[in-house]
Amino acid sequence: MPILQRKQRVSDDIPTASMADIAFLLLVFFLTTTVFNEEKGLPIVLPEEKEEQEVSPKNILFLIVRADGSVVVRRGESEQEQIVAYRQVEGILRQELAANENLIAAIKTEPSAAYRHMINVLDEVKKAGAERISLQMVGE
Amino acid sequence: MAVRSGGFKRRSGTSSDIPSSSMADIAFLLLIFFMVTTVFRREKKRDIDWVNAEATKKIDEKRKNILHLWLDPAGQVWINDQSVADDDIAQVVRPIYADNRELVIAVRGDRDVPYSKINTITKQLQAAGAVRVTFATRLEQRVTRPRR
User: Fold this and answer.
1) A interface mutation test: which of B51, B67, B77 has the most A CBs within 10 A?
2) Interface test with B, best of A123, A131, A135 (most B CBs within 10 A)
3) Do B111 and A113 touch (CB under 8 A)?
4) Mind telling me how many Å the CA of B82 is from chain A's nearest CA?
């Protein structure tokens, strides 16, 4: 072994040139893996308590959601009832709204009807572009 | 312009490199900034079957203004991981609404619960004064849309 110490070639610095790359890599990794859970739904504004208004019957279209998911359509003033599938509600409501733009779509649901039936009808009402919606329960 | 230094170009003393030694600091600073500003909502997910709707809209509201109200398949109401009796919903929501007048209640109900539960909830929310409600739904895509 030679007596003279060999000069060390390895640098004792921490390599800082790649540090930025590592940091940006982490940054990009976390940016891409972050999932924002979006809030989605059907917005509706409930009437203030004790501010329920009386409306003339001719401006109301009752959509009665029955327990089996079928819908009974009743124009406010007439006793005439029409049983339809919920998919037809949008078309009916569009016609009615064209005739009377002050129309209120009153969704009246039976207490035992599943939530999804009521949402199906509310969905149709929203699609028809109705602004004035009322939620009620049968027997109240 | 008069030529100075005898017409020889003076050697520029400034380096033409972008200083990269501080780049790491900048990147870490950004990283830490985003880590600190991220707010996690610690709320347990309830196991519910979502309702689908084609008219589903994105709720454009700040996260802190949204209160989730879960209604599980058994008909139990949950607010902030606490089970709430049907008649106490108004009591629970009222102080939250008093703190934040822009509160939106997102009702996350199971698709098969009877409507009477939803009716109770809306009545209670009305009593609490929180009238802005959304029925949380999943976007439904129908392959064929019947045209009339």
Assistant:
1) B51
2) A123
3) no
4) 21
What phi, psi does A36 have (nearest 5°)? -95, 120
C-alpha B133/C-alpha A1 separation (Å) is 85
Whose CA is closest to B43, among B9, B11, B66, B75? B66
Question: ipTM of the predicted structure?
Answer: 0.73
CB < 8 Å from B in window 13-72 of A: 16-17, 19-20, 22-24, 26-27, 30-31, 34, 38-49, 65
In tens, the pLDDT along A1-25 reads: 556 666 667 777 777 778 888 888 9
CA distance A7 to chain B (A): 28
Flag whether the pTM goes above 0.95. Answer: no
Q: Please report, for residues B7, B8, B18, the alpha-carbon distance to residue B11 in angstroms, rounded to integers and kept in the order given.
A: 12, 9, 19
Q: How far apart are CA B135 and CA A37, in angstroms?
A: 16
Per-residue confidence (pLDDT) for residue B146, from 0 to 100: 54
Q: Could you write out the three-class secondary structure of B36-80?
A: HHCCCCCCCCCCCCCCEECCCEECCCCHHHEEEEEECCCCCEEEC
